[in-house]
Amino acid sequence: MNSMSTKIGIVFKPMEEAKRASEDFAKLILSKQKVELLGPFCITDLKVGDLDLCDAIFTFGGDGTILKTARILNSAKPVLVGVNYGRLGFLAEVSPPLIENVLNDILTGHFPYYTIPRIIGRLYSEKESAVSPPALNEFFFAADVTGRLITLKIVIQDTMVYKGRMDGLIVSTAMGSTAYSLSAGGPVVDPEAEVTVLTHIAPINIALRPIVVNKSKKISIINVDTNNIKMIIDGMHWRELLPGEHLEISEFEIPIKLYRAQHDLLTKLFEKRLMLERKL
């Protein structure tokens, strides 16, 4: 990166502290040589592809800001650098006092990062087909009315795994297994494992356990209910899965690069868990 100009994007969550910090960081960037600046932008103002040509994107917020930024990326070129102005800071692991050191790492081109796979959904029905935004964490299937069960059929690589009723279903990446899936009783999976995790929420069949499969396998979710089912991707509603429709979930060909500040992800997971337990 240091032989030509480095293109850096700045994104902030809609919070005054994060906005001010991003503006101060922009001034720091402009004092550097051979740097092209894009932003600062509020994450709500960006659309798909806006930052694809960046070498690095600094996000000011929490893990949610990284998830929303990843959602609009259709390029594996930028490395995401999460500056933590949120709470947990599992993905956004750079503390604000260290940001100038991280910037210098980025400008020299010598920095550690994770390569994180994503998953994507392809909708099939009699009326239309559609492709979902990519998910860094998970797809969540839930009733369109609170308190109602959903009825799904789950097929993994042509093998029918389950057909029945449940409160909901989470299909997550290995990274996403540390988020909602873990809270819902899913397994602790090394975030760098090459797997996809299915976690059923309160299934009628109590013998049904979470399922871990190789990330290369395609997973089909078929709505065999008489009602619509909500599909939520990384915390954001996408659309309804209508009766008879099915969504095929597979690995997305464009991963995300995430700046690696400290330890491996599994070590960090247990450190954050212990930190939360001490606060209780």
From TrEMBL:
* Major subcellular location class: cytoplasm
- What's a Gene Ontology MF term here? ATP binding
Keywords for the protein's UniProt record, in alphabetical order = ATP-binding, Cytoplasm, Kinase, NAD, NADP, Nucleotide-binding, Transferase
Q: What cofactor does its activity depend on?
A: a divalent metal cation
The signal peptide annotation in the UniProt record is none
User: Which is one Gene Ontology cellular component term of this protein?
Assistant: cytoplasm
User: Where, subcellularly, is it found?
Assistant: Cytoplasm
Q: Where does NAD(+) bind?
A: 63-64, 68, 137-138, 148, 165, 167, 178-183, 202
* One matching Pfam family: NAD_kinase
Catalysed reaction(s) here are: NAD(+) + ATP = ADP + NADP(+) + H(+)
Q: What is its EC number?
A: 2.7.1.23
The superkingdom listed in its UniProt entry is Archaea
- Any one biological process term the GO annotation gives: NADP+ biosynthetic process
Can you tell me which residues form the catalytic site?
D63 (proton acceptor)
| Keyword Iron-sulfur included in the entry's annotation | no
Q: Where are the coiled-coil regions?
A: none
Free-text function comment from the UniProt entry: Involved in the regulation of the intracellular balance of NAD and NADP, and is a key enzyme in the biosynthesis of NADP. Catalyzes specifically the phosphorylation on 2'-hydroxyl of the adenosine moiety of NAD to yield NADP.
The UniProt similarity line reads:
Belongs to the NAD kinase family.
Which protein are we looking at?
A: NAD kinase
